[in-house]
Structure formats: C-alpha cells, structure tokens
Amino acid sequence: MTSETKSKRTAHIISHTHWDREWYLPYEKHHMRLIRTMDVLMDTLEKDTEYKSFYLDGQTIILEDYLQVRPEQKERLEKYINEGRIFIGPWYILQDAFLTSGEANIRNMQIGHKDARRYGQISKIGYFPDTFGLVGQTPQLMRQSGIDNAVFGRGVKPTGFNNTVADSDYESSFSELIWEGPDGSKVLGILFANWYSNGNEVPVDPEEAKIFWDRKLADAEKYASTPELLYMNGCDHQPIQTDLAEALETARSLYPDTEFVHSNFPKYLDAVKKAKDGDLSVVRGELRSQRTDGWGTLVNTASARVYLKQMNQQGQALLEKVAEPLASYARIAGQEYPHDLFTYAWKTLMQNHPHDSICGCSVDEVHREMVTRFAKSRDVAESIIEESKQAVADAVDTSVFRTFGEDTVPFVVFNTTGWKRSGTVSVDLDVQRVYFRDGGTLEEMSRRMKELDLGARAVVDAEGKPVAFTLEDLGLRFGYDLPDDKFRQPFMARAVRITLEADQIPSLGLRTYALVGGSAAEGLSIQAGSLVKEGHVMENDNLRVEAVANGSITISDKRTGRVYSDLLIYEDTGDIGNEYMYKQPEGEEALTTKDLKASIRVEEDTAYRAVLEITHDWEIPASADKLLDQEQVELIYFPVRKAQRVQETVPMKIITRVTLEREGQGVKVEASFNNQAKDHRVRMLMPTDIESSNHHVDSMFEIVTRDNNPTKEWQNPSNAQHQQAFVDVSGDGAGLTVANLGLNEYEVLRDGRNTIAVTLLRSVGELGDWGHFLTPEAQCLGEHTVHLELIPHSGDGVDTGAYQEAYQFQIPWTVSQTGLHEGTLPAEHTTITWEAKNLAFSSWKVNEESGDDMLRWFNMKPEPSTLELQLTNQNSSVYKTTILEESSEDQLEAHANGIKLPVGSCEIVTAGVRHLS
C-alpha cells in the first residue's frame, strides 16, 4: 500500500465469541461457560458506553441456551438487541455445509430469521466463521435471504496484495473477493485470512500494544484490498474483553495515522464497499481448499462416526421428504398443519448440525447426546407422519372394495417424491382385531385371533386387478388406539406382512390397494414369475446381475451393452489419523476381498424382486500398534506419524444383500458387519472403467463437477471428498451413479479404472486438532448396516433419470391401512402435476403466516428451463418466492391452471400456491 493509503486506514474491531455448543467438552459444560459469558457481556454493555456492540456468532440458539437458565434476563437482552448493541441471526445454528441437506439449511435460515425477528432485528450477515468448506450454492442462498455478503474462514487461498490476478477459481488476490455461485448470484466475500481471532485480547499496556499492533496491522494489510482492516476480537468460547475500550485508547495514542473503531459488521461491510477501488478476484463455485496440500481440509469428518450421518440422513428425509408433504396433503382432508411441531422437530434435529457435532469430531459424551436428539426428532416426525397419512387414507373412497366382502382390508401407498415411482413396498396389516372393550378373556381373544383362517388371499388395486404379492403371517399382535376423545383402546390382532410391487404411483400422490380373502380371492391369483436365472444371476428388462466366486458382482446394462465388473469388492486399510483426517500407515498395502472366496445363495425369488446373499468371512488386523498411543499423547502431527498395524487379526464377517426389482433401474445393496477392529477404514469399491477426467456429485441444490485428479499443490495421498445423495462417473455413452444413505465420503481412485470408493466405516481413537482427547467410542465397534444403489445409465444422469432414481432412493415409501368407507379423495390421486426439463423436486410444506403451500425445485443443469404446473385445485394462484417465502408483488403469477414458470441456470425456485377458496 502507498503511504497515502496507510494514512487513511481504519481498524475495525468487532467483538464476538465463536460458540461451539459442544466439542471438546460436553454440551452442558460449554453451556455453563456460555451463561457466564453472556452475564459478563450484558454487564459490560451496561457499564461501558464505549463498548459499542457484540456479534453473537450468527446463531439464535445462543439466546435459547442462555434464557433457559436466565429467563429473567430476557428484557435486558431484548433492550441491547433493539439498541443495536447485540447483533443476532441470521441462522438458528452454525451448521456444517456439506453434511446437512439443502432443505435443512433453508429451515435453519427460516427459523433463525423467525426467532431473531421476535427480538426486533435480524443481522443480515452470511456468517460461516469455521464451517469446514462451503457449498457452491451459498451465494444464491444468501441472495434469496436478502444477504449480499458471506463472511468465512475456510475454502479460499488468499495470494496477497501484489497478486492483482489470482490464477485459479479457488484463489483470491485479497481477503475481500467476489464469490459467484453456479446460477450467477454474487456476494461480497470476506475471508478471515488471519482467522476470526486476529483481534483477540488486545493489550492495554503500550509496550505490549506496540508489538501486537505492528504485527496485526501488517498481517491484515498483506491481504486487504482496501484500507478498511478487519479485526475479530474473540475466538472459540472466548470470554468478553472487558477492558477493550481502554485498549483501543492505547492503540489510538500509538498510531495517530490509524482510526481504531469498535465496529460491527454492517459498518465494516459498508466501509469496504465504499473504499473498494478496482476489481476484486471472482471466486466461483464450492470452496473446499482445493489449492492446498490436502492435509488440513478436514474432509474425513464426512466418515467420522458414520452412524451419526446415517441417523441424520434418516431424520432429514423423514422431516422434509415425508412428514412435511404428508402434513400438507392432510390439509386437504381437513387436518391442521402442525407448524409448531415441525419447528420443534427441526430445531431438535438441527442441534446436531453444527460442524463439531454432525462432523463426529467431538468427545464421546457429545455424540451420545446426539443419538438421543436424533431419536427425539425422529419420534416427532413419525408422529406427524402417522397422523397425516391416516387422515389422508381415511379420506380416500375405498367403497369400491366392498364388492370383495366386508372383511377386505384396504391400504394406501403414498409416494412423497416429486416423480412417479415404482418399487417394492411392504406393509403390516391387521387382518382382524378384537378390542378389550368388547369383553372376553385374554385367552379367548388370543385363541380367536390364532384360529383365524388366513386361507386364500389376494391383493387387488381399485380396478379389481390382482397384484403380485407375498404374505408373511406375523401371528398374534397386541396393539392399541389412542383416540382424541376417550381412553386408550387396546386390542389383539392377527397380523400379516404384505409385500408387493407398487407400479407407477403418481408423484406427491397415492394409490389404494386391498387385501381380500375367502371366496372373493378365488381366481385372482396371477402367474408367478422369477428374476433369478441360472447360477447366481438375476435379470430384468434393464439389467443383468451376476455374483461371482469372490463375492463381487458384474452388472450388464442391456440398454447400452456396457458391462461393469468387480463391483462390491471391500477394502480395509489402517487409519492412524483422527476424527478430522484419515492417515494410512506408511508403506501399508490395502487388504481387499478380491481373492477371498465368498458364500453365495438366493435369499428371495419372487415375480417382482430377487435377492442374492453374499457372505465374506474375512480377517483383518485388530488395531494399530502401541506407537500410535505414544504419538497421540505426544501430539505428533498425524501426517508424520509412524505407527503401523498389529499382526493379530479379528474376524470381519460381511453379509451383503444384492437386490434387483422387476422395474428396477438400479441394483440395491445392503451390507452388514460386526466391527471388532480399531484404527482402520472400510470402503466398498466400484470400478467404472469409464474414461473421464472428472465426475459429478450431489451437493446442496447442485450437481457439482469435480476433477478426478487434485491440483499440483495437493500432497495428501487420499483425495476423499464429500457427497450427499450420490456420486457419478460418466463418459461417452455410459455412466455409473452410486447412491447412498448417509455415507457422505467417497473417492474416485486414480487406479486406471476410475473406481468409485465409498467409505462404509472409519474407526479412530482420538478427537485430534489442538490437544489430546481420547474418543474410544469413535472406533465404532459393533453392528453396522449400510445401504447403496448402483445405477448404470447411458451417460447423462439427468436426462436418463439416474439422478432421479438416486434421489428417490433417499426417501422411504409410506403405507397406511384404512377401512371400507366413502371418501372425498379417489383411490388414485395426486395434488400437483409438474413437468420441467432438468429440474429436481425438493420440498412441499405450508407457510405459517399465509397458509400457502410452498413447493421447491432446483435446476440440476447450468442451462435455463421452464417449470409447468397443473394443480388439482383450479381456484388457486401461483407466485414465485424466495427461500424465506417472501414474495414480491411483481412476481405474482396468473391462474394456476397450466402455469409456466421460467427457471434460470442452476436456479433454486420456490413456488407459493394460494388457494382462493
């Protein structure tokens, strides 16, 4: 900088504390420190008028945590928030970006805004101080939230003031930059180039202050593009600096050419915008520290404690993909949408979403509590699902089934995905019940149910056509109803499990079937078929699947002629890293099941589904050697550790179930194993043999293209990356998409075959980072089950529907038993019909204030599209809205019948539907 520029510089000191709710201490121990911190903060604001303001870490949950213990401080807290001395929001919690769904991030922003609004202000700061990388759609999400900035600490490499042009999409000439998303949305990016603690503990003593500020001013000017310099006065769980005003007076006396301001983000950002002279670097897309040595990216938090990721995937899917659409559907049947229950369920789930929580990189006590939170949120979601699906099912007109007799048992199959869906569905039905209230002894009731003759049975659709199915007798079952107007009603029942092929169930809709018996079932049987061929081969119209002697499978895609071999080989390596990062012992060769003979048998063979069971009896090293214990105690940096694995082995029995359905576009895989080894990683390998220099990955509202080979700066032998629903390798005329349920880490191997390796388990014994924190439960000993789907296609995952299949794989079927009755809904029904090239459906919920339906899609491709909507309710209007569900008057669309809505490249589009009567 020139001397003239230096004479005008301003040091903006922003006070804050970065509050990890749980990390190296359990939640309540951090909580106790939070109470003290907040008490001191408000005392300081009251006593010292020169202590101007404080940024409360961008997350409103801090207010809940504090007021839970200090409810009497609410008015005082509101006073300082309204005065602009405490800045709150925009988030409910500071979430990890790559391990939480797009809808979870939107709920986080919505709930954070709602809670902040109650206190009088919302801080419009895109705050990501310590997020472990940032997804590419962040600029668009910020812009749709009315935020024009993103303040973050990781993902971009600054190159310094003299580099006027950065040579990469992932580098910036300055700590200030323009960040552009795939849709073209742009925000002002502020990188904490010297971290979010570069203004921490400012000295009051002149001699100490001179040393401090000489270094700090130089450090900031090294990267700053303007004379507006940012200093973050705080750090992780940092106590309030109560003598800051005095410390700034000392600084002013030492540096008369510098204006020291106890500032805030709005003032600082406004000053930067006014001072900016010339072009800033434009950084595009996701920020994952791509131009670094690869050792500090923290990417392997995607595989730490995989069981947490699986619970999170289930919890998110139940809330956003099942409970919300079913509750929206149930409004048609007159049921009130349970806004408060959803807020409670989402908040409980999101308390597991901060980076130190969902990333699995905390002490064991933290993750034990997370399991309880996952269960609590899931229980609420399942309660909403149960009430909603029953309300809709009871509104369906099932009277058509009366022709089969009064003992007919109707049931409704729901498709809560955004596309038509076929597949195998199971439902437990009570064929007959006897209620305790009707009298009789338990012995008599049990006898009656046991003696019930199941006899000939058939499943029919609403047109009376028979459907292929299997019936499993579950025997006697105790159950109970919980009526709204009377005491609980227990009963004994004879239960069966019906499994059938649900064919082409309409999107966001339903189809009704019935189990019929007696004479009505006679003549309704259909000819049985089989998908099992000679040997261990399964085949449908699309795919041929063969299991070979070593337990791997070969998939032949009949549509393209492409053959994929050596799929589902397991790999095991040592891991002497920690919860943050994987490190294989030096010189170790990976163990695989490639040369291990497997046991193979046909487990299921029906007209609509076949299953092969493959068993591997494997032996793997029991743990790392004792040197690892020593290296952990001595805090040896994990990339230079020398520990190896022991010679002693333990059994690793893996049972793999490979499923092919009659209409299946892919092959479903379930693998179960009992892990008794420590300090290791298990992956499933799927060679693609497709020539391509890049691959495609599902991320937040985006299909990201990533290079197979890392950049020249990358030194880490591993190039593992994050995924959400799937990873895909595609080339000319062929592609393989591998979908997963809660397996967030993959790597495309540089092995000449472009093998997709998905991490199933990673076992480590320490937290890592800044100290010695043992985490024996992170070894993940015990039973594990994982699920994947392998989906071959002809080269374009969007056009072929492979990505659609992968998204539907995330979402469970919903089924509800009902009775014989009249109803307002037909036996086959859908609420909305939509068509759009390249769009993926994301959510259907109800806005709390307006009562309007909110429907969201995102464009999977970087090209424009058009969304065409057809609504069942003709007396409705449609309008475009933001992710905050705030619409502009000029966005209101015409009549709902046949609406066409333009959708931009990679755009996230939300449509509000207002029912006028």
UniProtKB/TrEMBL annotation:
Gene3D superfamilies named in the record: 2.60.40.2210, Glycoside hydrolase 38, N terminal domain, Glycoside hydrolase family 38, central domain, Golgi alpha-mannosidase II, domain 4
SMART domains xrefs: Alpha-mann_mid (SM00872)
Domain of life, per lineage: Bacteria
Record's keyword terms, sorted: Glycosidase, Hydrolase, Metal-binding
Record has Transcription regulation as a keyword: no
Residue ranges constituting the Glycoside hydrolase family 38 central domain according to the UniProt record: 301-374
Keyword Metal-binding in annotation: yes
Coiled coil: none
Family: Belongs to the glycosyl hydrolase 38 family.
Protein name: Alpha-mannosidase
Lineage of origin: Bacteria, Bacillati, Bacillota, Bacilli, Bacillales
